[in-house]
Amino acid sequence: MMITPVHRFRDIERKPEYLQPEKCVPPPSRASLGTMWFIRDGCGIACAVVTWMLVFYADFVVLLVMLVPSRDYVYSVINGTLFNTLAFLALASHFRAMLTDPVSISLSVCLGKKKAVFFLSGAVPKGNATKEFIESLQLKPGQVVYKCPKCCSIKPDRAHHCSVCKRCIRKMDHHCPWVNNCVGENNQKYFVLFTMYIALISLHALIMVGFHFLYCFEEDWTKCSSFSPPTTVILLILLCFEALLFLIFTSVMFGTQVHSICTDETGIEQLKKEERRWAKKTKWMNMKAVFGHPFSIAWLSPFATPDQGKADPYQYVV
């Protein structure tokens, strides 16, 4: 992919700061970075904790208010197993989306006659736009590298700086406080699964609340729950409100994410109406690029790391 003059003005972050590499501090070594990715943002951590608490509250109401007091043992076992399985997958997807580097750090350089190609998978290495590193690339006259002035990183195409993560994220869709992380190349699968499973358990909870209300209207309220009738009504109404709210929200997010994957255009790229400069692929190929090759049941598992095949190179230079 050749970088044209359009690239110079595509993003306000891409101003001629790359001419001052002496201002950058060398990046830490790979060993000192550790293996866990976690964003220390107070708002994001609070939102993540609230997410887990809301799922636990829904599980509490479903089990102790609706299913355990039910006289239909088969109904309780089937719905309890289904709800808790979906809730477990939702929380596992949330955990993976939160603790997965949107673009894991792995850098190699291949110098050709006309261009230097950088191969990365994940978040752009922070502070690598140093004078020594740029000189080591042995760039020829006319070749240009772009530097993000905020994190002193050599900035590849389709990367945007996140002010919360304080990093440039390749194919950044958006920063989601509910998962306390950016949604990027490496964790988009887990975010999509999280929204899907939350939507499913919300729908399941609404259906069970509806059936439980009908059952309680037909029977004695004192026999349809272990709690008092007023407490039961309050708990069910709160669950109904929570489930309806998250069903609408996560369904919309799931739809927008699938559309973004199929069109191979992130939310930020759509918002900024950026010109497409990357190869156009089929919708099925774009889906496999996110969820893995080939199609399998592992697409639905938050425990399966997608095999994305050969990664696309991040080309910085003309």
UniProtKB/TrEMBL annotation:
Catalytic activity, EC: 2.3.1.225
Classification via InterPro entries: Palmitoyltrfase_DHHC, PFA4/ZDH16/20/ERF2-like
Domain Palmitoyltransferase DHHC stretches: 147-273
Cross-referenced Pfam families: DHHC
GO CC term (a single one): membrane
Keyword Transmembrane part of the UniProt annotation: yes
Single GO MF annotation: protein-cysteine S-palmitoyltransferase activity
Source organism superkingdom: Eukaryota
Membrane topology summary: Multi-pass membrane protein
TM region(s), chain numbering: 43-67, 73-92, 190-213, 233-254
Keyword Acyltransferase: yes
The protein's enzyme class: transferase
Family from the record: Belongs to the DHHC palmitoyltransferase family.
PANTHER family, A to Z: PALMITOYLTRANSFERASE ZDHHC16
Domain comment, as recorded: The DHHC domain is required for palmitoyltransferase activity.
Protein name per its UniProtKB record: Palmitoyltransferase
Species in which this protein is naturally found: Bubo bubo
